[in-house]
Amino acid sequence: MEKFEKLTGIAAPLPLVNIDTDMIIPKQFLKTIKRSGLGVSLFQEMRYDRQGNENPDFVLNKPQYREAEILVTGDNFGCGSSREHAPWALKDFGIRTVIATSFADIFYNNCFKNGILPIILPQEAVDVLMQDAEKGSNARMIVDLEAQTVTSSDGEVFPFEVDSFKKHCLLNGLDDIGLTLEKASSIDAFETGIAQARPWV
Amino acid sequence: MSPKTLYDKIWDAHVVQQDEDGTCLLYIDRHLVHEVTSPQAFEGLRMAGRKVHAPDRTIAVPDHNVPTTAGRENPDQMPEDSRIQVAALDQNARDFGIHYYPVDDIRQGIVHIVGPEQGWTLPGMTVVCGDSHTATHGAFGALAHGIGTSEVEHVLATQTLIQKKSKNMKVEITGKLRPGVTAKDITLSVIGATGTAGGTGYVIEYCGEAIRDLSMEGRMTVCNMAIEGGARAGLIAPDETTFEYVRGRPHAPKGAQWEAALDWWKTLYSDDDAHWDKVVTIKGEDIAPLVTWGTSPEDVLPITGEVPDPASFSGGKVEAARRSLEYMGLTPGQKLSDIEVDTVFIGSCTNGRIEDLRAAAAILKGKKVKDGMRAMVVPGSGLVRAQAEEEGLADIFREAGFEWRMAGCSMCLAMNPDQLSEGERCASTSNRNFEGRQGYKGRTHLVSPAMAAAAAVTGKLTDVREMI
């Protein structure tokens, strides 16, 4: 997995609550058997018309946000389906951080498996960063995972919380499966135990 | 010993190892797999030269892409990308030696219907699947939740997940339900009360008289939509209803093992003085038949209500409601029972079981679908379909003018050819009314099976209580 340490980048404002994973990447793109190539279809129904022409009003189609690496958005981002295609599409487009007041559980976990840092901040902080993002490409935010801070283009600093294990894995680009397989003997012992205690399982 | 919730008990029984910061390695008893969220995970295993750790605990079935029309065993019925995805599951199931129900097997169906039907899902288990509606299996008192593809690969390779424990939330539905009110209305009413993020960070246990009174199928409907309330999982403590449902199923324990299992299952309940981080109580008699008006499952009101004014909300919900009404083509103040629908869809892992079909058929018997409407029933599994045919339900549906389809996810997420067209309005027994969910610019109103049947007869959203 790609490491995430520190990012200085353009933030795109998407001030909508309850953006679900169907909006992030519609089902017709889930038929792929690969992880790559989904960026072009990110936010497809908001980003393009039925003929595939870009909707000029959608934030990521505006010239100043085409290179955005940060998304500032509304409550409960990523709700709905468990499709990991949602973070795959964000990552493929170039988004490395999403900032919101809350995230849906499965989406939040999926981000960490793909080198994306989802940041939960209070409403007041998100409001400030949303306004900052509205300024366009001249306003660059700094996201520092080690320090656990987001810094607005005006230099205002917002600390955030993140689970220590998830942080460790993201900072070092660690592969979960490799880590767990180091504990194979514990898993084997557990299986021996349940074969006795719950043999019907 | 300190008092525990049901969630605490199941969690504790599955912790392989716990780190100082509370991060746990959790053992997974059952891993359900479908064709959409698994190909990249199997590919990851191949590239790393890994095997499936516990193929006997891994069960696969294609459901999302499969056509629901006759003759679908012929792969040429599927578009190329769907065919490749289903073929990949066929191949992966063979290569890795996991249990598999292919399209031409009568036991094939929606993964969350097949698991319980075959007795794979049992009380006290941990169950995961690369699908958010895995919450369904919580109805058995199993800790069940959706995971992403990276975690699918993790479970395939290690039979564990790296997890931190969620908080405990109790949702109590007291008293009795009124006539015409169903499990679907219970689960929608909870989401309406708590919002789609109300359960974020929690595992919900549903309890109370109205929950106890539900059949296993009703309980599955309730738990299925726990995810729509944001919860990691929904649970219902197992009881005689559960044990009776499980007994004799193909993969349920038998003989002495059954007795041993039963002894443990009977300890799976929340202790009286267990700690709850959040409690929600709803009176069963206050729940009416519900419909959704917007594009989030929290946008729900009694059928007797009116389309709300976006200005009546606060914060980001004002703009969200305005956007929803524009998308849905509705105006504030419009009576919900005046909304005309073009299509009715009965099916999905929420409401595609035999009791759902019985409830719809009871309304449809001797009646006709309104002229010009499209109506379809998609049973949740081949076995549900066969049983409905045996009970004469299929004839009732056909005679009323419904299409009688083969099993699959179908129009719930519209990955197969069953889709709404632009502007088409549907009364649907599925679980999500998101923008574009059932087809590009399609408009979804979530309802119970009986309400869907009523809408098919009248051509508009209808209070089913007027027809019973």
From TrEMBL, chain A:
Chain coiled-coil ranges: none
Recorded GO CC terms: 3-isopropylmalate dehydratase complex
Enzymatic reactions: (2R,3S)-3-isopropylmalate = (2S)-2-isopropylmalate
Any one GO molecular-function label of the UniProt entry: 3-isopropylmalate dehydratase activity
Superkingdom assignment: Bacteria
Listed CDD domains: IPMI_Swivel (cd01577)
Residue intervals of the Aconitase A/isopropylmalate dehydratase small subunit swivel domain: 1-123
Keyword Amino-acid biosynthesis: yes
Keyword terms, alphabetized: Amino-acid biosynthesis, Branched-chain amino acid biosynthesis, Leucine biosynthesis, Lyase
EC number: 4.2.1.33
InterPro entries referenced in this protein's UniProt entry, alphabetically: 3-IsopropMal_deHydase_ssu, Aconitase/3IPM_dehydase_swvl, AconitaseA/IPMdHydase_ssu_swvl, IPMI_Swivel, LeuD
Signal peptide: none
Involved pathway(s): Amino-acid biosynthesis; L-leucine biosynthesis; L-leucine from 3-methyl-2-oxobutanoate: step 2/4
GO process terms (BP): L-leucine biosynthetic process
Catalytic class of the enzyme: lyase
Function: Catalyzes the isomerization between 2-isopropylmalate and 3-isopropylmalate, via the formation of 2-isopropylmaleate.
Alphabetized NCBIfam families for the sequence: leuD, PRK01641.1
Subunit-level organization: Heterodimer of LeuC and LeuD.
PANTHER family in the record: 3-ISOPROPYLMALATE DEHYDRATASE SMALL SUBUNIT, 3-ISOPROPYLMALATE DEHYDRATASE SMALL SUBUNIT 2-RELATED-RELATED
Family: Belongs to the LeuD family. LeuD type 1 subfamily.
Record protein name field: 3-isopropylmalate dehydratase small subunit
UniProt source species: Lutimaribacter pacificus
Lineage per the UniProt record: Bacteria, Pseudomonadati, Pseudomonadota, Alphaproteobacteria, Rhodobacterales
Automatic annotation (TrEMBL), chain B:
The organism of origin for this protein: Lutimaribacter pacificus
Ligand binding ([4Fe-4S] cluster): C349, C409, C412
Function per UniProt: Catalyzes the isomerization between 2-isopropylmalate and 3-isopropylmalate, via the formation of 2-isopropylmaleate.
Matching SUPFAM superfamilies: Aconitase iron-sulfur domain (SSF53732)
UniProt entry keywords in alphabetical sequence: 4Fe-4S, Amino-acid biosynthesis, Branched-chain amino acid biosynthesis, Iron, Iron-sulfur, Leucine biosynthesis, Lyase, Metal-binding
Catalysed transformations (reactions): (2R,3S)-3-isopropylmalate = (2S)-2-isopropylmalate
CDD domains in UniProt: IPMI
Pfam families referenced in this protein's UniProt entry, alphabetically: Aconitase (PF00330)
Descriptive protein name: 3-isopropylmalate dehydratase large subunit
Any one Gene Ontology molecular-function term assigned to this protein's record: metal ion binding
GO biological process: L-leucine biosynthetic process
